[in-house]
Specification:
By secondary structure, this protein is of the alpha+beta class. It has one domain: 4'-phosphopantetheinyl transferase domain (Ribosomal Protein L22, Chain A, Alpha-Beta Complex). Helix content is 29%, strand content 27%. The chain is built from seven helices and twelve strands. The protein has a four-stranded mixed β-sheet. Strands 6-10-9-12 form a four-stranded antiparallel β-sheet, with helices on one face. Strands 2-3 form a two-stranded antiparallel sheet. Helix 3 packs antiparallel against helix 4. The longest helix has 22 residues. 40% of the residues are buried. The C terminus is likely disordered. Belongs to the P-Pant transferase superfamily. Gsp/Sfp/HetI/AcpT family. This is 4'-phosphopantetheinyl transferase superfamily protein. Pfam families: ACPS. InterPro entries: 4-PPantetheinyl_Trfase_dom (IPR008278), 4-PPantetheinyl_Trfase_dom_sf (IPR037143), P-Pant_transferase_sf (IPR050559).
Length: 251
Amino acid sequence: MRAGAEGWLIALHDTAERGWDDEDCRAVLSPEEARRADRFRRPASAVAYVRVRSAVRRVLAHVLGESPAEVRIAVAPGGGPVLPEHPDWYVSWSASKDALLVGVCRGAPIGVDVEVIRPVESPAQVLRTFYPSAFALGEFHEPETFFSAWTLLEAAVKATGRGLARGAREVQLYRPPGARRCALAGVRDGAGVPWSGRTERFALPRSSDEVMTAVVTRGAAVPVRLHTWRLPDAPPSGDAPRPVSGTGVAP
């Protein structure tokens, strides 16, 4: 993998329709993941969990050069995922409806978030619950404004490992004049290091849904490459998700 961060956008519904057997998915889970899947009361929730974890393992196997079942994923004190046998690698993932985004970065923390774009009732109030400075971002007349702010906030607190409840107030968002999207100004983490973030709006492959993605990394202007992956096919050779026309990229 080249320097920088990479992300993979996976359409889970497309994966399921193409014969990716759920038993095959279960076969690569760790014993703890399998036990957790069995604890779900709703079968649909168990299936979704198994597909997400299996897909994450396949992405990490591709990056690390291991088999999916061999990848060891642990939980950090803050609740985020860590790779104990690869301490220089950082991973983050997010799922929304049928969309899964997995991000990896070598040598620097990373946080990602994906949200299916949809109507949100009282978006400013929702954001202010965790981010009191939301009023400074202006009006939320368009879903793109809310979801750019929300995904950046989620991705940033995943990257810092602080979580929404503790870390949201450390995140600094702003909205450029005339822009529909919000952008990341920085993170007050006490270390004085720069953070970079980007959002993009994509059409989810083989779906009528559109998604907003956010990737946040520690470091100034870390290059980010996004790919699509149609599991259970072989790893992608460079396919990128299709940006929605006219949305641009927030700085």
